[in-house]
Design brief:
466 residues, alpha/beta, 8-stranded mixed β-sheet, 6-stranded antiparallel β-sheet, 42% helix, binds adenosine-5'-diphosphate, binds aspartic acid, binds magnesium ion
Length: 466
């Protein structure tokens, strides 16, 4: 058994769905379980329609919903020449559209969109495309059935953070394994899941990759294939560095690290479930299926400069706690972490000067203001007594990460990175190297990020085959 996941561009319209379905057909001997994302852009449109509803712009709301509806209608008309089949699918979709109308009417009336409503709203993209995809596989001669992941992927209730209940999900995934082994191709909605009480939730933006690895690990698949619009994991985001090159092999650790630091090709949580079962992940290009793609496994050859990729993540805020009086104040770092944890703020990066005059953390823009407020409150006494001079923040910053297993023990990586940025007069606001030495992270201003990525890509000769 293998899991085969298609992203938004791979199911963006009828020709792409046809292409993706043919790929599934070609893999039929390997008993595929298919996971699909919403058509490209549909999740964004749904959320925008939600915002319009909140702000009372019903016309804009309906325009966006109409846009989504016509894209699906058009795909159905192009994919299904048989009128009865097309009518059957339209009927399935009509039921989903009735629910969509109700939900959006609710949001318009309440003029608010809670996290729970957001999740429900964003779930419709996957739910609309899956019946279509499954039906289309049938026209290619395969047996297939649509599966709503809310019946399979279950979250655990004992946490405010989203956590998948793997025991429950494993039990429920047996159904998928049975289907696949019996020659039926299950087509599962990516991205969405359910709480034990049946509340619709999601795995976070870009979460269909994670869906694929959850399902893959639960059925102990031989391989998890992520089919997307690039030919694999690349040395940098090709939209920033046109000379970026596809990497044939990447380790689990490298893939986890680079996705955490902004390589959108994989959702950051995708790796863990695969590691647990030691399942290889293969990234493939739907539009160049013969290209070898990238194989992600436990171990991998190192690149000559030990750095394999440069990634960047923007929209961050740098928060600093400063003061000479901090020397000798016990547990400042500990209190910083307790405070952020209490407010459910996730800290992307942390550093403390050895003189203890300075503690910096990087959080998302969304958490920036709250972090500053919470830390000021926490250190109120110290600020009054002038032991801490200030808690401040700088927004519009980016983290640039150099990632590669070989960075460990390779001398001069940091020196090369700093001199490259220094020569280009790009100011470095903070640096950190994980103790795993897999990653060197550098904080710069957001406006400098693309150029920093391009220059580092060049300095480490990542465009050349090692
Ligand atoms: P999908 O809809 O298939 O999930 P995504 O848009 O989520 O596709 O992810 C694929 C995109 O990730 C690529 O088109 C590419 O622009 C971007 N990307 C960013 N960094 C990298 C990288 N290091 N390697 C490959 N792609 C990357
Ligand atoms: N459709 C979802 C999103 O846009 C999930 C995904 O694409 O993986 O975030
Ligand atoms: Mg994606």
């Amino acid at each position: 058994m293998i899991v085969v996941k298609f992203g938004g561009t791979s199911v963006g319209a009828a020709p792409q769905i046809d292409q993706a379905a043919r790929i599934v057909h070609s893999l039929r001997a390997q008993k595929p379980i298919v996971v699909v994302s919403a058509m490209g852009g549909v999740t964004d449109l749904l959320l925008q329609a939600g915002e319009s509803a909140v702000s009372g712009q019903t016309r804009a709301r309906d325009d966006k919903l109409w846009d989504i509806r016509s894209r699906h209608d058009q795909a159905i008309n192009q994919l299904f020449k048989d009128r009865d089949t097309a009518a059957g699918i339209q009927e399935t979709e009509r039921v989903i559209w009735e629910e969509i109308q109700k939900v959006f009417t609710g949001v318009s009336l309440l003029r608010e969109m809670s996290p729970r409503s957001r999740d429900l709203i964003s779930s419709f993209g996957e739910r609309l495309v899956v019946p279509m995809f499954a039906e289309y596989l049938k026209t290619l001669g395969l047996k297939s059935e649509p599966v709503d992941a809310r019946d399979i992927v279950i979250t655990s209730e004992d946490s405010d953070f989203l956590r998948v209940d793997f025991d429950e999900t494993r039990k429920r995934s047996e159904k998928l394994a049975k289907m696949a082994k019996g020659g039926v191709v299950p087509v599962v909605t990516g991205f969405i899941c359910s709480s034990p009480e049946g509340i619709t939730t999601t795995l976070g933006r870009g979460g269909s990759d994670y869906s694929a690895s959850i399902v893959g690990s639960c059925v102990k698949a031989e391989e998890i294939q992520i089919w997307t619009d690039v030919s694999g994991v690349m040395t940098a985001d090709p939209r920033i560095v046109p000379a970026a090159r596809v990497l044939e092999r990447v380790s689990y650790k490298e893939a986890a690290e680079m996705s955490y630091f902004g390589a959108k090709v994989l959702h950051p949580q995708t790796i863990m479930p695969a590691v647990d079962e030691n399942i290889p992940i293969r990234i493939k290009n739907t539009f160049a299926p013969d290209a070898p793609g990238t194989l992600i496994t436990a171990d991998t050859p190192a690149h000559q400069y030990s750095v394999k990729t440069v990634t960047s993540i923007t929209g961050m805020t740098l928060v600093s706690v400063e003061g000479r009086g901090m020397i000798g104040v016990p547990g400042v770092a500990g209190r910083v972490f307790t405070t952020t944890a209490r407010h459910r703020i996730s800290v992307m990066m942390f550093s403390q000067g050895s003189s203890e005059q300075h503690i910096s953390l990087v959080v998302t823009r969304h958490d920036g203001d709250q972090s500053v407020k919470a830390l000021r409150r926490e250190f109120e006494g110290e600020i009054e007594r002038r032991r801490i001079d200030r808690v401040s923040s700088v927004s519009e910053i980016a983290i640039i990460a150099l990632v590669g297993e070989g960075i460990k023990g390779a001398p001069g990586v940091a020196a090369r990175a700093f001199s490259t940025l220094g020569t280009a007069a790009i100011n470095i606001l903070m640096i950190a190297q994980g103790s795993s030495e897999l990653n060197l992270s550098i904080v710069v201003r957001e406006k400098d990020a693309p150029r920093a990525v391009q220059l580092l890509h060049e300095a480490f000769e990542l465009g050349l085959k090692s």
